[in-house]
Amino acid sequence: AQKVTQAQTEISVVEKEDVTLDCVYETRDTTYYLFWYKQPPSGELVFLIRRNSFDEQNEISGRYSWNFQKSTSSFNFTITASQVVDSAVYFCALSEVYSSYKLIFGSGTRLLVRP
Amino acid sequence: DAGVIQSPRHEVTEMGQEVTLRCKPISGHDYLFWYRQTMMRGLELLIYFNNNVPIDDSGMPEDRFSAKMPNASFSTLKIQPSEPRDSAVYFCASTTLNGGELFFGEGSRLTVL
Hints:
A: mainly beta; 6-stranded mixed β-sheet; 4-stranded antiparallel β-sheet; globular; B: mainly beta; about 55% strand
């Protein structure tokens, strides 16, 4: 069965600090997708990234970077030089492509960036 | 292009009343999902459709909940009768590719008194 674990419930950092949000997943499938979504205080869910299980290359997008390691079933998200606007709840999610197309979310990590 | 449109944005009702939440997916998307978000249970998938056909409704909490998709541009989630524990934010999302990014609506915040 699919499962996504975000062990960090809440993280508080001071602006300009780097912060890493952890995500560990479980799946029996060999083909799957991993996602990160951001939910700012306004409540909408904003897509950040999708990664398929065959692509273990790390990805960088501005201040955001993602580290995908199949060996440890982890898909961690790092924000470099955090800003107050990064304050939000961040969700990691998993979709098994062939057994069932469902996006299963972790419980989320609340990030508070203090000025 | 318009995103996923949900209505109402906010609904306050009394226990026992029927509640209908509506969703218009992005045109051309053939997958539609209903999620529920609560503090206790996080984001839960309730049901999803492919080409208007329900594929998996195993997340629907009980018979009080029902969902329909009469055509490619409209879906409803109905709760009858509603209970206080149904209070949550209900999200609708759509996508066009298997494994693709889900596009979420802004959510419908339901409060059952």
